[in-house]
Predict the 3D structure of the following.
Amino acid sequence: MPAPIIKVDAISKSFGTFKVLDGLSMQVMPGEKLALIGPSGSGKTTILRILMTLEKIDGGHIQVDGEQLYHMERNGQLLAADERHLARMRQKIGMVFQLFNLFPHKCVMDNVTLAPMLTKGVARAAAEKRAIELLDMVGLADKAKAMPAQLSGGQKQRVAIARALALSPKIMLFDEVTSALDPELVEEVLNVMRKLAAETDMTMLLVTHEMGFAHDFADRVLFFDRGRIVEEGKPDEIFRHPKQERTQSFLKKIIAAGHRV
Amino acid sequence: MTQWSGYLGLILQGALVTIELTLMGSVLALIMAFLAGMGRVSRFFIVRAIATVYIEFFRGTSIFVQLFWAYFVLPFAGLSLTPLQAGVLALGLNVGAYAAEVVRGAILSVGREQYEACTALNLGRWQGMRHVILPQALLVMLPTFGNNAIELLKATSVVSLISLADLTFQAQVVRSQTGSTLMPFLSVLIIYFALALMISWGVRTLERRMARGLDGVRV
Ligand SMILES: Nc1ncnc2c1ncn2[C@@H]1O[C@H](COP(=O)(O)OP(=O)(O)O)[C@@H](O)[C@H]1O
Ligand SMILES: [Mg+2]
């Protein structure tokens, strides 16, 4: 049995006096597809942002790909990670945001090639060749020269996925990547994610309210509530036979709101 | 009539000096604005402190006093400047202090999500600033930069006080030599106005070119 690629160990995180994550622990295996579900405000976004180093932790430890994320070992001592260490760790992780966060002043091609050229020293020609492959994969090869403002939400999100993939991370984090989209555009983004799941062995963590998609996509589902994992299991266990009362009532509400499970 | 054209020649020479001052002063102001404006958002306290002192000092004292210092006092410190150099220095530092606040405000106006995208893509602080934040901030700065440049143009007339033969200085010369007030002062009025119009127009053209493709998202 291989070692986990992510090991979260008793981390806590507060915003002011409000404790968002309270001694959270979890493990993710290499290549695993994980769905994080739960009510709004339960800390799902926060854990992804912590893994992307967009948010610091107050306590606990995180190991990514065999190394401490927020600590460095120096002469047998654990020190707080410096910017160099964080930059090296970030190479392993990519993130796609709810609101795409594309660079509005750069065309699609430049959005995708910027980071590989700057952070990995990839030559422009090679970066563009790879970008075309990725844009082709997300079905947007013909939009390479378009500006983000000329794209639909679904197209923007697919560009954002290609942009994150261009750095070849081992782990991809998706934070409600379809929540900001018009309903008819959701499927084109989900299709890209299905393709990714089928064709790559990337580890994928997905926060979503699309329960039907989570059911088909995930190897394992974590149900979050108030900064803790209340229940976890295979999609069938969580969606068909939830054991915890809080999971049951959450799913009931979601179905009542019209989501397919 | 030939006499008038001679005097007009003097005024046009003055206009050239004014244009020269405006261009060189603007370049210095631009450099200072970016240094101090980015210094104001630095993560190092000492850099922020130096930038703040510079900005507050040059906004808090008058351009006259700054010019007199540059021209009359600096020589005591062993730094003798020509009137043109002193003018460019005073104008550039003065307007640069105002424009620095524009740079700072524009940098802060770029949304947090853009900074976060930079982090997620593992861009270094400077790489993100250079390729993502500043290009977007520049569009926010431009209109105000245009105003700053016009302020600088208008302020150039102070150099006539250290006998640099700029537009205003030449107008005085023509007035004292001809006894006519209307002709020299009307000409300089028109020339200052025309120069200001050219700055406005140039900045607006630049703005339009840079905003192309952005669909008005950030203007
Ligand atoms: N920067 C912040 N400052 C203060 N409170 C925050 C901040 N970010 C998140 N929170 C709070 O933390 C809680 C968890 O947020 P989040 O992780 O976004 O939840 P979820 O993604 O599960 O909806 C929420 O109550 C939210 O209001
Ligand atoms: Mg969220």
The radius of gyration of chain B is 21 Å. Residues A 44-45, 176 surround magnesium ion (ligand 2) (CB under 6 Å). Chain B is about 80% helix and 0% strand. Chain B has a mean pLDDT of 92.
